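lol so apparently i was supposed to do this last week
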Amino acid sequence: MSGDRWWHGAVLYHVYVRSWQDSDGDGYGDLRGIIARLDHLSWLGADGIWLSPTMPSPDQDWGYDVSDYLGVHPELGTLADLDELIAQAGRRGMRVLLDLVPNHTSSAHPWFADAVSGPGSAHRGYYVWAGPGPDGGPPNNWLDATGRPAWQLDQPSGQYYLHNYLAAQPDLNWWNPQVHREFREVLGFWFDRGVAGFRIDVAHGLYKDAELRDNPPEDSSGPLGGRYGLRQVYNANRPQVHEVYREWRSIAERYSPARLLLGETWTGDIGALAAFYGDDDELQLAFNFAFAYAALGGLPGAVAGTLAGLPAGACPVWTASNHDIGRFASRWCDGDPDRIRLALLLLLTLPGTTVLYYGDEIGMTDVAVPAERRRDAMTLTVPERWNRDRCRTPMQWDSTAGGGFSEAPPWLPPGDAAACNVAAQRDDPRSLLRLCRELIGLRRTWIGGDLGCRQLPAPEGAWRFAAGRVIVTANLTGAHLALPDAGEQAVLLSSLGPAEGPAVPGSLRPWEGIVTSPAAARP
Ligand code: GLC
Ligand code: MG
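anyway here it is w/ magnesium ion bound
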């Protein structure tokens, strides 16, 4: 995978830094912890690592409120640690992506500290300010991520500033050319240091309507259906954002290999998602949340819709878990081991880029975090299903009391590490972890950077597609399924492993997925 577009066919591994490995006994994961565990990722076969925010932050939103774009959070390590992490990952053939947050800063950022000092300050125009609306309240009807008005009154000036997330996360004003200049510098700083690219936070954001028009009502519900009954037409999703990505892409292309831009493109609309790829001159990768939010049985439709909607040559992104939306082992599979095995088989055989979230490889499920242990300010006051602490709990490395994560009490309560951990699964050839590793190897050998994916006819309840030199067939039901033409193919791998007892020829077991090769069947 040394080509210029190394992410075609790649497996990226998303490390939520605070929860992966603690090296200094403070109960929080950190960069030296990641360095110590890199062998796990090279053994698994990852091509790259995306680190959740590493920059200095007051942590109102755990790093997504940045107070210095050119530094490293002291609780996580130093710039030297990050350099070493990049070098050590590189030695193992893995690239490192950082998380960039361009939609907003922390209210503790020096730009904002200056901006609130008064309307005439040098950085006032870095943020979005407006006077009260006609009724003397907030300037318009926009709501923040907690469902409250997205405007905070600045008493001394009588103006409001915009915050699409917490009040401690003031939105940047992308109509201001200075903001563009600042971020060009940020990109160059990290790209020059050997960072392979960025996951771009709130990539559909950045620009807001210049006239600050009210958002219209939204009828559709669900996670991708607007925000608290409003369609996010004017507070985000503005067409001007594409100019930013065209410019960033040209910066990324100055490096060899090109630096990678992977957007958090929060949309359920395939046309809008496709637009982020531009004419192969914007983001190279865009997260596909419609896929993540489909049910297991809805994946064939979600994949078909994606493939039909993306521009020719665009590389789709398959991811099913993250630090906001929760873990697929719970959302797609209800914790059922066979379904988890099938889901991993599908994630790792779909052509494109697959992003695994830490713990996906051992089937970690969401953890019920008691109210008094919750740490995510954004979701403390919203319905329980939106709680994000459940998917940010410590990595389960072994069955010791701390799960191998930390000597100290961890910042979030661990899941059941005795029942689900890396050490035990490494020793068990039939484990999910070993299946995951085998699938990544198979992906590399049989699919690689070939983006072609053809949906094939399959019996009711089954899903079949051709990828690279293999054919994948999945039983999306809990019943045995007859598969009349299975005999013509050589089975390279089954998600359930070899059948115990007599196999029923020409059939798939409940929730079984198989990878077959027409080529291997030929003499
Ligand atoms: C993104 C991040 C999320 C964060 C939000 C605001 O959605 O993934 O964790 O709270 O942006 O930065
Ligand atoms: Mg630590």
